[in-house]
Specification:
Elements (H helix, E strand, L loop, with lengths): L4 H17 L15 E8 L6 E11 L2 E6 L9 H8 L2 E6 L2 E9 L2 H14 L2 H8 L5 E7 L8
Antiparallel strand pairs: 1-2, 1-4, 2-3, 3-6, 4-5, 5-6
């Protein structure tokens, strides 16, 4: 069960502080097989133009990273996804390393193939899709230069 939104905001803030204090060595986890990892996605605010960072679960699909624009099943899409739709170039931070990516929405076939893996890694995604009154977007982060194999 997902905690109430105010509790999530506090947890997300603590997660950011921990990641910053350790240079990303704590607060991110590498994905392995179908086990989801955690990354920080660095975007630019579409309205403010200010840098933004969001912690997200991800999985590796070939040379791409995959994240979910669930916003915990809220009716609105997450701001990070709105930012990426306006400016798809971003960076991901995993284990203290930052790498450039380009974001795009998964097509229907890709999403259908990826949802079982995502749901296995985080069953809350099933509840989020049931709760949301909108389609939840699977986002493909295409690596713009090679990353180590164990990301």
């Amino acid at each position: 069960m997902t905690p109430p939104r105010p509790v999530l905001r506090v947890l997300w803030s603590l997660h950011r502080v921990l990641r910053r204090a350790t240079g990303g060595h704590i607060g991110t986890r590498r994905a392995h097989g179908d086990r989801l990892g955690t990354l920080f996605l660095h975007t630019v605010g579409r309205k403010s133009g200010q840098p933004r960072a969001n912690g997200l679960f991800y999985l590796v699909d070939g040379s791409d990273l995959v994240v979910v624009a669930s916003n915990a099943g809220a009716e609105t899409e997450p701001a990070w996804w709105l930012n990426l739709r306006d400016r798809p170039e971003a960076e991901v931070e995993i284990g203290g390393e930052r790498q450039p990516v380009r974001a795009r929405a998964a097509n229907a076939g890709e999403a259908a193939r990826l949802w079982p893996r995502l749901d296995a890694g985080n069953p809350e995604f099933i509840a989020y899709r049931a709760k949301a009154r909108r389609p939840i977007t699977v986002v493909i982060l295409e690596r713009r230069r090679p990353l180590p194999v164990d990301i």
